[in-house]
Amino acid sequence: MLSTGIKGLDKIITGLREGDNVVWQIDDIKDYIFLASVFARKAVADKKTVVYMRFAAHEQILKPLNGIIRYELDAGEGFESFSAKVHGIIARHGVGAYYVFDCLSGLLSAWATDLMIGNFFMISCPYLYELKTIAYFSIIRNSHSFGSIARIRETTQLLIDVYNCDNKLYLHPLKAWNRYSPTMFLPHQHRGEEFVPLTDSVNTARILSHIRETGEPRAKRILDYWDRLFIKAGEMAKTKKNTKETADTVNMLCRILITKNKRMHDLIVKHLSLGEIMDIKSRVIGTGFIGGKAAGMLLARKILSEDKILNWSGMEEPHDSFYIGSDIFYSFIVQNQLWKLRMTQKTPEGYIGMAKILRDKMVHGTFSQDIMESFQQVVEYFGASPIIVRSSSLLEDGFGNAFAGKYESVFLANQGTPEKRYIQFADAVKKVYASTMGEDVLIYRKSRGLDQLDEQMALLVQRVSGSQRKDVFFPDVSGVGLSYNTYVWNDKIDPSSGMLRLVCGLGTRAVNRVAGDYPAMAALSQPLVRPYSEKGDEIKFSQHNIDLIDTKANDLKTIAFSDIIESGLYNNLNRVAERNIDLEESYTRISGRIKQHWIINFKKLLSDSKFTETFRGMMQALEKGYDYPVEIEFTLNFAEKDDFKINLLQCRPLQRYGNTKKVNVPEDVNPKNMLFSSQGYFIGGNISQKINKIIYVEPKSYIGLRQSDKYGIARSIGKINSTIKDRYRNAALLIGPGRWGTSTPSLGVPVSFSEISNIRVMVEVAFPEGNLMPELSFGTHFFQDLVETDIFYAALFTHKKSVIFNPEWFDGFQDVFADSISGTEKYGDCIKVYDTTDTDVKIISDIVSQKMLCFKVSV
Fold first, then answer.
1. Which helix (H) or strand (E) holds 608?
2. Could you tell me if 82 and 73 are in contact, meaning their C-beta atoms sit under 8 angstroms apart?
3. What pTM did the predictor assign?
4. How many CB atoms lie within 10 A of CB 467?
5. 857: nearest Cα among 695, 696, 672
6. Which residues are CB-neighbours of 344 under 8 A, at least 6 positions away?
7. Residues 167-180, mean pLDDT to the nearest whole number
């Protein structure tokens, strides 16, 4: 029999057993200190490993003592980080260790919810049991909801009430798993070394009545601690008083509901009132944070509403959003018994390999009944309106980490029976959750030193902006806006005026590189000056297809713009497009038929000073409010006459990079020494970088490959990328035909971001013979990846007079591809790797002159 250190207590519970988790429900921390100290001293005397987990603000449970190992933990780091550290400590000490934890109620100050305390216990208790340990926990009576106590009771082996009455200590076992005695579940009074059971009704009734009288009202105990916090805050908000207590409450609620990021926190408390925070809470499902994307959207809207020049209320399309709290994400993992797998995935060995297994299990997980009921209420609220379920993780859209396009967003046509819509909604939530285990996002997190931080996934659920047109639904215009334009394609463009990237229909084509389509790019200081000049480019570099929601088919679809015109689905053609008379006349001559041809160029919209000045004003107001350049996503829907309504969907700090120091581009370089040069068409500011390695995908060889081999080329590039350990000291330049990162191999090399993450310079080369053309992706998620990873990007349009590309330049270097990676020798004709370490090869660019040059420095 293993001992508690108190003979009378051992007698009550028939001793401790391997694997026991003991939870003490207390009124006074001193009672727990007494019980835990006696237990620890006995264990040390018995030469057991004793571990003390210190994390709460209360008085320390165990004083320093030889034989006790002490760990100081910070619950404020977040549920996952804290739990992972505890998990690691338990694993380190292995089988048979003894543990004393601080009072679990102390976690409320960090996590603000009983739910997460219950989750922590549910993942820790079984692991401790598995390792045959003995662990002491405590909770403060009446501080937690009945639901949370029920979860703890269900999981633990021993649950014992501890209370003082008339200066006497009493114990009352409530659960003693797998053991029984006739008096075990009676209250017991402490007398010396003994605990005497109260067998008479008088004393038993007196003690239990005392407990009941000192407890919280039953109504409050039904509520989570989280709910009680907000009930109190709601009562304060009704007074509309701006007191220090109100300010402190705003700070506290912001820390538990909106953001952990200090810079964003300071902006939120500066702009949002207590009443506005309570409005946000009224639309939260579950508990926890609303996440970065939701916080950015709400903050930006408030900043715009406060601007004295903008008439934001007159042009705003109000958002209609719900927020699925970040705690639901971890509860989903815990309830589906995936936590152990999650901890294995967090290790270096399992980081990528275990992610796919975890992702598949998350897609097939289930939610608790109360969460499913909340989902049903959301679906019922939106009715048959199309909705989008968007990621809004804790680290998204913050200063320094955008996570642009890393997680899923799921459009739902939201048609059919309530039961069908309800199931589709839950599946969409699981799909976004599972996207946290995508390889690209894991590589992104690791490359930015975020792989061990909490990245809880909250969700932003929004009504899709747009209009129903027969059986399809879409907005008139969607786009991306940047308050600072680092891609300047004309010397008349003012970078500080910002730029827009516009599409007709859903915004998927504005944020992704899409095969065969090009959004309209407009610098707001010169909105009609296009980033191309050749005849025919306006048609080639325009949007030809529209993404929309087909409500009849209950799905997201892509439809040719010409089909939209012919079907008469759209009546705002002249506001987004312009007729191509030359093409119409040519078509009539050849076919003998008359057909309208339109080019989506937004010329009329961009000629409207109200439109351009509105967006300039919006982004200037947001940049001022954030004290930082910003990027926004939006939709625009036309009203009567020339009016429009703007739905601001997202706002985040714009990640910028590139050397701002003046760089002199040499004018006297021998053409034989040039690999390439260009006037414009690069992103990355000023750069002067020595190149140690050049990876070149030869265009003619590439277009002759089968599709499977084109994917093989991408995987081979990824293997070479993984060998680059220092992207600045061992800088690699990647150059190839068409679009890097496309999902369509016929348009370029289909690498994932993780396969180019260590590259320093990436170049896309036009190869018209194979219809391989670069895409100026400024404003896309792909662009955001390049910016955050500090990858300099250049596009070489080889048909332009200002562009030089000299592939014969490579003849002066030895191809070392065969020595770079093994198992891909068959791609040696297509992939060339040149080691330029011993040759002074540089790439230089200057944003002012818009000159860029890659050359071998003459000796």
1. none
2. yes
3. 0.83
4. 13
5. 672
6. 350, 354
7. 90
